[in-house]
Amino acid sequence: MGLVILSDTDQEFLERVEEVLQGVEDMEIVRLTNPSAAAAAALERDAHVVVYGPTSGREAAFAAAQKVAGAAGLRTANLLIANTVDAELLRAAMRSGFRDVVAVEGATYGDIAAAVQESVEAAVAARGGDEAADEAGTTSKVVTIFSTKGGVGKSVIASNLAAYIAAKLDKRVVLLDLDLEFGDDAVMLGLEPTRTIYDAVQAYDRLDAQLLEGFMHVHESGAKVLLAPTQPEQAEVITNARVSGIIDLSRELADVVIIDTPGRLDETVLTAIDRSDEVLAVATMDLPSIKNTKVSLQKLRQLGYRNDLVKLVLNRADSKVFLEPADVERAVGSSVLMRVPSDRLVPRSVNRGVPVALDQPKSPVAKSLAELAQHVVAE
Ligand SMILES: Nc1ncnc2c1ncn2[C@@H]1O[C@H](COP(=O)(O)OP(=O)(O)OP(=O)(O)O)[C@@H](O)[C@H]1O
Ligand SMILES: [Mg+2]
Questions:
Q1: With a 6 A CB cut-off, is 239 part of the ligand 1 pocket?
Q2: Exposure string (b/e) for 163-173, b if CB count within 10 Å is 16 or more?
């Protein structure tokens, strides 16, 4: 059951949208002519979606969306229908808390209805997550390891954090390898991928936390690991809604959920970031990596993520380069949470499938990873 508030001054538009939506099962629709009344009604009735039509007036619609996003978060999705959409409008809309923008130009009422339906599903998924967390009574923490560049050390950091926190900090840990095409966590942890996220998705219709746990491998540290598919093409069936559901179920199984990601900002990664309490952005000390980090963090801010959601981790921070960590902070506009030194022990331990943080605990690289792990469980 979804509650949708439609707001526009054009009665004919409202009627047409309502008509196509009524073909969809179980949707209650309320029509209003003004965005601020729509926002008030949405908050009062805990609506799933507010749709602002093309005659809403940009300023009023943006103010209303901001109000809804501020008060309801992801529980209620704001959807803007505009006559035309350009990059500037899209950016501004994302910043004001819209989930999606649809251009009337070239769209049918069916397209608009599909966007509304998608937004309802997103709101329902967001609520499921809230409720699952409430039910389990847990304060589990989800941490996504992120970088839009490959080879910077995301998987090294993710696998070491998971193993160290499970083995040394007495927490229940789940590691999700969401690098769906080329996930490396199996190799990094010396695990044979006999079961993967692909199998969990095949059983999605009846998946609960217990069944999901059965698809995970238990690393000798105690960390439970949901591995990436063994065939890149299997990634196709792993939709964002399913990823979102798997993250929520993982919360029930763990105190800390660590998510490893591919080196790009795609829908899967955004889904993970959406569900995260903290994002560790990994950068190395070279200009392309720093430029990349700067651009991707800007993008996250434009998408409306809180500034303090993301913390910067510098990997291979002592490489013989001309840059200083302070230069990086200035360039990226974020402070550095941790510096992980470069060490030959890392590739050696990767090749042996043993996390360096547990294998060589006295080394400086292991100590910095341990310190990062302490930070993750603190709070
Ligand atoms: N601190 C370090 N010191 C030395 N080598 C490192 C360090 N961190 C990572 N490496 C090496 O860099 C390689 C790439 O690391 P990793 O696979 O973790 O990167 P990634 O960001 O996950 O890449 P991808 O996006 O391709 O998955 C690893 O094989 C590892 O040996
Ligand atoms: Mg990786």
A1: no
A2: bbbbbbbebbb
